[in-house]
From TrEMBL:
This is DUF295 domain-containing protein. Residues 75-339 form the KIB1-4 beta-propeller domain. InterPro entries: F-box-like_dom_sf (IPR036047), F-box_BR-signaling (IPR050942), F-box_dom (IPR001810), KIB1-4_b-propeller (IPR005174). Signal peptide: none annotated. It comes from Rhododendron simsii (Sims's rhododendron).
Length: 368
């Protein structure tokens, strides 16, 4: 076999353009100097990716590690002083960072591009960390309508004033606006975008759709669904996600399993015990249809904008499963894999304890 480093550049460009996964593109760039010179953004077409698990080490506040579910270990470590001491949520590969003083930014962890958003002192509710008297703007979820780098109008929708169970009101910022718009009528548990509409699920299981780029952005269209949020004995954390062209509402079933030595006001440890999945029915009398299988699809749920991935394109990822991180962030099986076929739970990564300020979250990798 000849020397791989001596392949003609035009051949290397053809190879680079056939790579579909960003993590494989990184390995391509690490072969040698010539290959690295070809591994430029113009030679990588952004497409559906397998999310990486982003970890923040409490002893290294500037550092973020990214774990590949295919490779089973840390694939990249990035120094991000811009995210130091900030709460990080993810949407379309961007981080939405919030700080104690109300600063909120869009930040791309790999290009280091940062977009400063309007200050949010008018977000009235704050969340007090239970082990320190430190207040953070209480945003539990943030989703983009499209990637800012695509050069068109986009919207950032957030759930704010989020209480202990994760519910909150909606606020959104449009890229052409200078301030936030608020909708304080309904409490939502999760939000996501599909075909330009923002879908939100409330505690009754009802899904509301908002045309936030239209003339009436705060007026919801209701898509009827079904089962309620749950009782105090068995909590059900709802998520909304598009999968294979349909809208799904997923309930993560959470149980209080044992007393805790935690010094906060709740004496229990919470654990994920399972999931139920419903396909939203948009008909007038629709109640949602329970799904017992995701087929070749896999869901990634947590503090990120929930996503569905076709595993038939990516060997090494378990089909018909739900990869999750636990937004309750205390004790128990706080991140793992739920198998829809047999109802089993298994760890997705076993590593060192992470920062409470920036807990594990899924990130959709992209070089630009």
């Amino acid at each position: 076999m000849g020397n791989w480093a001596e392949l003609p550049e035009d051949i290397l460009v053809l190879i680079a353009k056939r790579i579909t996964l960003f993590e494989d593109f990184l390995f391509f760039s690490g072969v040698c100097r010539l290959w690295r010179s070809v591994a430029v953004n113009d030679n990588f077409k952004v497409s559906e990716q397998i999310p990486w698990l982003m970890l923040s080490n409490k002893d290294k506040p500037d550092e973020r590690q990214f774990v590949s579910m295919r490779k089973g270990g840390v694939i990249r470590t990035v120094n991000l002083p811009e995210a130091r001491g900030k709460r990080c949520l993810e949407t379309l590969g961007w981080l939405v960072t919030t700080s104690e003083d109300g600063d909120i930014n869009l930040f791309h962890p790999f290009t280091r591009v940062q977009i400063n958003l309007p200050h949010i002192p008018n977000f009235e509710y704050y969340s007090v960390r239970r082990n320190k008297s430190v207040s953070f703007i209480s945003i539990s979820k943030a989703v983009l309508s499209s990637r800012p780098e695509e050069g068109k109008d986009y919207v950032l929708m957030v759930i704010y004033a989020a209480g202990y169970k994760g519910r909150g009101h909606l606020a959104f910022w449009r890229s052409r606006d200078k301030s936030w718009i608020f909708d304080n009528i309904i409490w939502f548990y999760d939000i996501n975008f599909r075909n330009g509409l923002c879908y939100g699920v409330d505690g009754s299981g009802t899904v509301h759709a908002f045309d936030v780029l239209g003339p009436n952005p705060t007026v919801p269209l209701v898509v009827r669904y079904g089962p309620s949020h749950g009782s105090s004995a068995v909590l059900k954390q709802p998520y909304v996600v598009e999968s294979a062209g349909v809208v799904l509402v997923v309930h993560r079933i959470i149980r209080r399993v044992s007393p805790s030595t935690f010094s906060g006001d709740d004496p229990y440890i919470f654990e994920t015990s399972g999931f139920t999945v419903f396909e939203v029915d948009s008909s007038a009398n629709g109640k949602g249809v329970e799904k017992t299988s995701l087929g070749d699809r896999v869901l990634f749920l947590g503090d990120n904008a929930s996503v569905s991935v076709d595993t038939s394109r990516f060997p090494g990822i378990k089909a018909n499963c739900i990869y999750y991180t636990d937004s309750f962030k205390r004790g128990g099986n706080y991140m793992g894999i739920y198998n829809m076929e047999d109802g089993s739970l298994s760890p997705c990564y076993e590593g060192e304890p992470c920062s409470l300020i920036c807990p594990p979250t899924w990130v959709n990798p992209s070089p630009h």
